[in-house]
Amino acid sequence: MPVGLALTVRTMVADSAKGPRPSLTETLFMLFLRLVAVGSLWFALQYWAMLTGFSFNGQGRFDLLPPAWKAAYTALAVLFPVAAVGLWLLVSWGPVIWLLAAATEVAMHEVYPSIFGIDRLLVFAHGAVAIVFVLFQAALFIQRRRQTRTVRPDSP
Q: For residues 81 and 36, what is the distance between their CA atoms, to the nearest angstrom?
């Protein structure tokens, strides 16, 4: 790299705005969202494997499923990968799409157990993730509120 260019790059880096470092709570929340994204991707892969005949010895292929299962599993095969991308990228729509997918699965197993069967572990897991998400949101809200209380631009 030429000397002039290296000097310019160093000057640009020194002039760059340095944002505040994320707090421990924010870092843990980002890690939590990424773990949920990996779990969502796992669910998506399971649904796609079933619909394409790679699991259950081909018994769960799309063309062999009853209409209710076709609708539910196809929707979940689309929702979970989209949720995984949104959660991984830490965008605001990621948890919303995950909530739609999780609520669909909970409704399948709790509202229509005669069609989809009962899966208490899955319902419990989705409930636990939702509770942890709400607790993180509350902790972040309290943390931001304390920060705005301590430093204000209009303080004397």
A: 11
Which residues, in sequence order, are CB contacts of 63 under 8 Å at separation 6+? none
Taking the CB of residue 84, how many other CB atoms lie within 10 A of it?
25
Q: Do residues 66 and 44 lie in contact, with contact meaning Cβ atoms separated by under 8 Å?
A: no
| Cα atoms in the 13 Å half-sphere on the side-chain side of 56 | 15
Q: What is the pTM of this model?
A: 0.81
Q: For helices 24-52 and 120-150, what crossing angle results, to 10°?
A: 150
Amino acid at 116: F
> Does residue 13 sit in helix, strand or coil?
helix
The mean pLDDT values, 10 residues at a time, for the chain of 156 residues are 59 64 93 98 94 83 89 96 97 97 96 94 97 98 85 58
| d(C-alpha 45, C-alpha 33), whole Å | 18
CA separation for the pair 115, 2 (Å, rounded): 70
